[in-house]
C-alpha cells in the first residue's frame, strides 16, 4: 500500500455487471470464486435486509478528511471501503456521512472498524458492513499522515483493489476481482440453475445417504 497518495481514476465493471452481481447470493458467488475472497464473519451487515454491491473506492485509515476525499471521488453506484485497521474502540462512520453519500448516489459502505447511528443507517436504508457499533467516535484528525485514497488495501487477508466489486448480504461479504466479474456472474448463474434443476428432480425422494454411509463403513443399527 502507498500512503499519502490520492488516485483520482479507477477502472470499474459495467453497471449491468454490478446489477447482475447484486441479484446473486453471496454464498453462490463465493462458491464460484472457489471459496476465496470472503471477508471475516466479524464484518457483518448492520442494515438487515439490504444488499451491499458496488465498485470499491478505497480510503486507507480512519481519518475523516481522507474518507471525504474518497467520497468526493466516488461515482454513483460505488461502495466506499474504509480500511480502518479493524479497530473496535471507536467508530469512524455514521448517519450524517451516510446521508451525504446517499445523496451522491453512493450505494453503501464497508468499514473495517466500527460505526454508529445504526438506527439512522437502517432508516435511510444505507447498506453498511462493519465490525460492530459504538457511540464513541474518533477525535479528528486521526492517522491522516498515513492515509491514502484509491490504493489497494488488505482486510482480513483479502486484497481489495479499487474497482473490485464488494457484495454483501446477511450471509457475509465477498470481494470479486474486477477482472473476474464477467466469469463469476456466468459461473454463478449456471451453478444456481443447475442446482435448482437437481433439487427439483429429487423432490420428495430419498437422498440415499444412509446407504452411502453404510458403504463407507458406518454401522447401521
Can you tell me about this structure?
- With 221 residues, this protein is an alpha/beta fold.
- Helix content is 31%, strand content 21%.
- It has helices at 15-22, 26-32, 64-73, 95-103, 118-123, 181-201, 209-215; strands spanning 44-45, 52-60, 78-83, 108-111, 114-115, 128-130, 132-133, 148-149, 153-155, 158-160, 165-169, 172-176.
- Strands 1, 2, 3, 4, 6, 8, 11 and 12 form an eight-stranded mixed beta sheet that branches. It has a two-stranded parallel ribbon with strand order 5-7. A two-stranded antiparallel sheet has the order 9-10.
- Strand 11 (165-169) and strand 12 form a beta hairpin.
- Helix 2 packs across helix 6 (181-201).
- The chain is elongated.
- The termini are far apart.
- The model has no long low-confidence stretch (mean pLDDT 95).
Concise account of the structure shown:
The protein has 221 residues and is of the alpha/beta class.
Sum up the structure in keywords.
221 residues, eight-stranded mixed beta sheet, 21% strand, elongated
Secondary structure layout plus pairing:
Elements: H1 15-22, H2 26-32, E1 44-45, E2 52-60, H3 64-73, E3 78-83, H4 95-103, E4 108-111, E5 114-115, H5 118-123, E6 128-130, E7 132-133, E8 148-149, E9 153-155, E10 158-160, E11 165-169, E12 172-176, H6 181-201, H7 209-215
Amino acid at each position: 500500500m502507498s500512503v499519502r497518495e490520492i488516485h483520482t481514476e479507477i477502472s470499474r465493471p459495467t453497471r449491468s455487471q454490478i446489477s447482475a452481481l447484486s441479484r446473486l447470493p453471496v454464498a453462490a458467488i463465493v462458491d464460484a470464486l472457489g471459496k476465496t475472497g470472503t471477508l471475516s464473519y466479524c464484518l457483518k451487515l448492520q442494515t438487515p435486509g439490504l444488499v451491499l454491491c458496488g465498485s470499491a473506492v478505497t480510503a486507507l485509515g480512519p481519518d475523516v478528511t481522507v474518507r471525504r476525499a474518497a467520497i468526493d471521488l466516488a461515482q454513483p453506484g460505488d461502495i466506499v471501503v474504509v480500511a480502518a485497521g479493524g479497530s473496535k474502540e471507536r467508530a469512524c462512520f455514521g448517519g450524517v456521512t451516510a446521508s451525504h453519500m446517499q445523496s451522491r448516489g453512493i450505494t453503501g459502505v464497508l468499514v473495517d472498524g466500527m460505526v454508529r447511528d445504526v438506527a439512522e443507517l437502517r432508516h435511510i436504508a444505507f447498506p453498511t458492513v462493519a465490525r460492530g457499533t459504538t457511540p464513541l467516535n474518533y477525535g479528528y484528525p486521526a492517522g491522516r499522515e498515513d492515509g491514502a485514497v484509491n490504493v489497494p488495501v488488505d482486510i482480513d487477508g483479502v486484497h481489495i483493489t479499487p474497482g473490485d466489486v464488494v457484495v454483501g448480504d446477511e450471509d457475509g461479504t465477498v470481494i470479486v476481482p474486477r477482472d473476474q466479474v464477467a466469469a463469476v456472474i456466468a459461473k454463478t448463474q449456471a451453478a444456481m440453475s443447475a442446482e435448482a434443476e437437481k433439487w427439483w428432480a429429487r423432490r420428495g425422494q430419498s437422498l440415499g445417504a444412509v446407504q452411502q454411509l453404510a458403504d463407507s463403513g458406518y454401522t447401521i443399527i
